[in-house]
Amino acid sequence: MATATAALHRIRGSSLIDAIGLLILGLVVIWVVVKFAQDPTRFLNVTVLGARNGAIYGLVALGYTLVYGILQLINFAHGDVFALSGLVASTMIISVFGLDTTTGVLLIVIGLVGTLAVTIPLFAVVNATIERIAYKPLRNAPRLAPLITAVGVSFIVQNISLALYGVDFESVPNFIPRTDAVEIGGVGIGWNTIAVFLIVIPVLLVLTWFVRSTRQGKAMRAVAQDREASAMMGIDVNRTISVTFVIAGGLAAVAGLVYLLQFNIRYDTGFQLGLIAFTAAVLGGIGNLTGAVLGALMIGMVEAWNEGLDGTPGGDWTRSMIFGILIATLVFRPQGILGERTPEGA
Predict the structure, then answer these.
(1) Residue 163 domain-assigned?
(2) What pLDDT, in 10s, does the model give residues 98-155?
(3) pTM for the whole thing?
(4) Which of 57, 109, 225, 300 could form an S-S bond across to 50 if both were Cys, CB 3.0 to 4.6 Å?
(5) Secondary structure E strands in the chain
């Protein structure tokens, strides 16, 4: 086993692998340039659409990368918490606040803010409860145990969503206009696209500031580096991990509402979107907040190019392409775009 591991490391570190990776990247860049040259307006419109979807994926990917950065745990349940939060948000918007397209703008804003005021703390508590019941007892167990548990929790949350809302998609009216807010040279940027970025960018900035500059954020980074040393320095490791799950749950609630305002959502949406978001986190450098959003934007654009441009495999191949990107990332640059290479076993 040790010999096989050493051989794998040699292959990964070889100049041949680097050359193959650069060749593939070069071919992709050439393809993008050719498609842009064929029809710049269509290419840019499709790219804007992909960037919007990628930004939404980025909100989900932030929750994955935040938890992984602290626990080195792939919390597969995060996607299902996101989906359940979106379903609860639909109930709040339709049944509690009674919003529709005839409602005034001020009341719509109050209703959406009120929805977040309920779902963010609710799913922060849900996520923290999951950590306390399912993950904390396995803190010192072999890594396979919490990983299997995460898969099990994912199915539990998914089935709770199924029991509460059934198999039908839930949706809300188009509160944010789909019309173009800006048009430059035939390239339109819709109000709904602008709204997504007005949420994603501040969330990323605030989260980055929190992790880098606040006392709690520094404690999170310390625990991510060395749990035992952090405890010796007086950091409450259990509290820090719980706070991380609380923040991830709040992010899931924000992502759930943003997704709901753009698309339909149902009980298994989180499983499908969660796999894309996880791939984005790995592509950007799992554990890196900015990398997670960057990876999500790239995947969103790849998805849009494949489904919106001529001469591509088409929508049936989108998932295969996304997971092909995941495999290629793990082979050619396992630390991701913005991730840092760490010694084995660190």
Answers:
(1) yes
(2) 888 788 889 988 999 999 999 999 999 999 999 999 999 988 888 888 889 999 999 9
(3) 0.87
(4) 300
(5) 180-184, 187-190
